[in-house]
Amino acid sequence: MRTLSFLARLIFRPRVLGTGNVPRTGPVVIAANHLSFVDSVVIALVAPRRVVFLAKAEYFTGKGLRGRLVRRLFHALGAIPVERGTYHSARASLDAAQRIINGGNAFAIYPEGTRSLDGRLYRGRAGVAWLALSTGAPVVPVGLQGTERLQPVGSRLPRPHRVTVHFGRPLEFAGRENTARERRRTTDEIMAAIRALTGQEHVTEYNAAA
Hints:
By secondary structure, this protein is an alpha/beta fold. The chain has 7 helices and 7 strands, in the order H-E-E-H-E-H-E-H-E-H-E-H-E-H. It has helices at 2-12, 39-46, 64-77, 87-102, 127-135, 147-150, 180-198; strands spanning 15-17, 28-32, 51-56, 79-82, 106-109, 139-145, 164-167. Helix 3 links the parallel strand 3 and strand 4 (79-82).
């Protein structure tokens, strides 16, 4: 992992801000904007503690040399494979994330649901709020900048480019009821905190990008 971190830092020369805002122990939700395939890799390598995230099951079943390399990378980073695409798989993903958080871990999630292809910040989906409200864990907003140039959509390998990772102050939502109305309000507050870190243009619609 140290070798991987050293090599990766040579490629994306990270500018990391606010690491002191990440609790070193205990459950925490890391909520970030999503610009590139490599976002999870970047967060995992620069965070001041181990961060667990969910990854598409296809990343663990690839064939050939590239498939093996991707599989080993995601295992090394602590990714957990999940099936995606249906309501039941989405529910299973949230349940898996809840178990990770309740185990005292840091869990990373992208409230937008999928990558932004135009660089704008889309409306957050309420899963992040469900996790925060059901576990009582604080939410650390994260602003990523430059990762879309590090590995643009469609490129197979990363390109040298500096990125910025800004960890914001933890948001506490303890005491709120886990209702649909509170989940929406909580999600909007999290997205506002992310936007304050990135300066992205805000979009009121959900991201439907492929």
